[in-house]
């Protein structure tokens, strides 16, 4: 029987040692994500949301708690979980097709070619198979990075502010693209973002996090179809709801700055 | 068209030097023993060529250069890579290597003659010592400066250590290795001439020092020109090889 939940996080804590002092990065994170969900995580920079993604990916260890990914406790990176970073991180020396197929076993050349080609088409990069990353625009590079993240057919795709470095127009375009890809591939997506509009537009649920220590303040379920229309009343309703958390926080951060 | 322009621009200075040379030897009062006429040098080249001594010296020196260079390239790239990949190895070797690097190549010669004799071995060792360090140091920095972001991507896909080296570290280091090899090339001839000046009866360096004692400035100049030309040819060869090895670098430069 297929596992119902893609990800279960129970009482997760993460501490770093900074100058011999323990700093709490993540505190008591509890989150259950169903298969095929699109989760967005918003929070201030430094609230540990990127660390959370890296812990889910298995790139970073954690101090306490448990994480079950696709029914198995997380012990390290695996091909059932892809990741897209803010910088595209395409290897400059590999052609686009080789970058996309980077994580894919190349022993079966024909299968490799087919899978890579399929993913090039998925992100609409036909014609750029043999280009090098330096020849691509920011948006195209990020498409290639998404294709690389999806090429191993992972159950979960983690997106760490993938559109953060793109210009506003490309960003909206890419948001539409990722929704289309999500609907086509039915991959569970977990995206970290600064952009509240993006979080509402993409997420089934929005996880609002506070900073130092990173805690989940609220999980907002976006259940109105109307909320996906930018500028609609429902959209502004959710926007208000998310904003509220950060207005409270703002006073705190001002105090920090003095 | 652009290539022709590059070549022409590069020829400006050599042509000016030749004009100046020609003027100084024909209209100035420079004695032939200090600066021979171009025609004298031409005649001497012809004589050396027909006598076969130029080719003979050249082949002997080239043999030493190529042997020594290949050894130091392999040693330098391998050791630089191992030091770049392992912090422990780097910590073990770095202080010693940095200390030895400071010793001028000429200072090695007396000991090397004692240890290796005056045969081919001591000359090759001198060449290896001279060109090894730039190659090793640059390989090391190329490997160790590989962005961790890329290494993390490889980790994410559970790429094996060896494959990560081949597909991430090595390509990143290639332009650095090229720089190291070129710097190594620069000190190569210095080393071979130094080695041949001291204990040798053959090679371009020997020919130069012998000609100097006989006040044959034309022969000295010929040897200098020959070394320069071979140097630029080897440098060009390296450029061609590495341009083929790193096609992405060219694309990046084209984009500007």
Your description of this structure?
The complex is a heterodimer of chains A (about 260) and B (about 260). Chain A is of the alpha/beta class and about 260 residues long. Helices cover about 35% and strands about 25% of the residues of chain A. Chain A has a single domain, classed as Rossmann fold (3-Layer(aba) Sandwich), CATH 3.40.50.300. The mean pLDDT of chain A is about 85. Chain B has a single domain, classed as MetI-like fold, CATH 1.10.3720.10. Helices cover about 85% and strands about 0% of the residues of chain B. In chain B, α3 (about 55-85) runs antiparallel to α4, α3 (about 55-85) crosses α9 (about 205-215) and α6 runs antiparallel to α8. The longest helix of chain B has about 40 residues, at about 160-200. The interface of A and B includes residues 76, 78, 87, 89 and 91 of A.
Which structural traits does this protein have?
heterodimer, A: 258 residues, alpha/beta, Rossmann fold, 7 helices, 35% helix, B: 256 residues, mainly alpha, MetI-like fold, 11 helices, globular
In short:
Chain A is of the alpha/beta class and 258 residues long. Chain A has seven helices and ten strands.
Layout of strands and helices, then pairs:
The complex is a heterodimer of chains A (258) and B (256).
Chain A: E1 5-18, E2 21-34, E3 38-42, H1 49-57, E4 64-69, E5 72-73, E6 81-84, H2 96-100, H3 109-122, H4 138-150, E7 156-160, H5 168-185, E8 188-193, H6 196-202, E9 205-210, E10 215-221, H7 233-257
Parallel strand pairs in A: 3-8, 3-9, 6-7, 7-8
Antiparallel strand pairs in A: 1-2, 1-4, 4-5, 9-10
Helix pairs in contact in A: 3-4, 6-7
Chain B: H1 2-27, H2 38-51, H3 53-85, H4 87-101, H5 105-116, H6 120-144, H7 148-156, H8 161-198, H9 204-213, H10 217-245, H11 247-255
Helix pairs in contact in B: 2-10, 3-4, 3-6, 3-8, 3-9, 5-6, 6-8, 8-9, 8-10, 9-10
């Amino acid at each position: 029987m297929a596992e119902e939940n893609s990800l279960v996080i129970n009482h997760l804590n993460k501490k770093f040692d900074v100058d011999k002092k323990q700093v709490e990065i993540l505190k008591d994170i509890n989150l259950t994500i169903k298969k095929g969900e699109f989760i967005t995580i918003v929070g201030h920079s430094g609230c540990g949301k990127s660390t959370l993604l890296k812990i889910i990916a298995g790139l970073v260890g954690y101090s306490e708690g448990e994480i079950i990914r696709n029914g198995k406790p997380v012990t390290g990176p695996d091909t059932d979980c892809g990741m897209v970073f803010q910088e595209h991180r395409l290897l400059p020396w590999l052609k686009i097709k080789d970058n996309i197929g980077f994580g894919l076993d190349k022993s079966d050349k024909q299968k490799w070619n087919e899978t890579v080609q399929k993913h090039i088409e998925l992100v609409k990069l036909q014609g750029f198979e043999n280009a090098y990353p330096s020849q691509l625009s920011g948006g195209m590079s990020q498409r290639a990075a998404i294709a690389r993240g999806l090429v191993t057919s992972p159950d979960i795709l983690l997106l760490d502010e993938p559109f953060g470095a793109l210009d506003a127009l490309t960003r909206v375009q890419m948001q539409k693209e990722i929704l289309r890809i999500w609907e086509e591939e039915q991959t569970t997506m977990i995206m970290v973002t600064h952009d509240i509009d993006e979080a509402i537009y993409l997420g089934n649920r929005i996880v609002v996090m506070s900073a130092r220590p990173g805690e989940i303040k609220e999980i907002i379920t976006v259940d109105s179809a109307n909320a996906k229309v930018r500028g609609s009343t429902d959209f502004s309703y959710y926007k208000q709801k998310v904003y509220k958390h950060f207005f409270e926080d703002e006073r705190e951060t001002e105090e920090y700055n003095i | 068209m652009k290539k022709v322009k590059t070549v022409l621009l590069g020829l400006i200075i050599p042509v000016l030097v030749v004009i100046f040379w020609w003027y100084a030897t024909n209209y100035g009062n420079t004695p032939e023993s200090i600066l021979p006429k171009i025609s004298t040098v031409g005649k001497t080249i012809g004589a050396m060529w027909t006598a076969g001594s130029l080719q003979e010296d050249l082949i002997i020196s080239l043999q030493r250069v190529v042997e020594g260079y290949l050894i130091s390239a392999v040693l330098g790239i391998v050791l630089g890579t191992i030091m770049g990949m392992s912090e422990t190895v780097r910590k073990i070797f770095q202080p010693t290597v940095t200390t030895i690097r400071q010793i001028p190549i000429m200072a090695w010669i007396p000991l090397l003659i004692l240890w290796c004799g005056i045969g081919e071995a001591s000359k090759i060792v001198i060449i290896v010592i001279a060109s090894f360090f730039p190659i090793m140091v640059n390989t090391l920095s190329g490997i160790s400066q590989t962005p961790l972001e890329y290494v993390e991507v490889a980790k994410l896909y559970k790429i094996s250590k060896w494959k990560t080296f081949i597909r991430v570290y090595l390509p990143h280091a290639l332009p650095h290795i090229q720089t190291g090899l070129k710097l190594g090339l620069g000190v190569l001839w210095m080393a071979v001439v130094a080695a041949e000046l001291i204990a040798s009866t053959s090679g371009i360096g020997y020919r130069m020092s012998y000609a100097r004692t006989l006040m044959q400035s034309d022969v000295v100049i010929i040897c200098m020109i020959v070394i320069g030309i071979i140097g630029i040819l080897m440098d060009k060869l390296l450029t061609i090889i590495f341009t083929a090895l790193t096609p992405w670098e060219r694309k990046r430069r084209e984009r500007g």
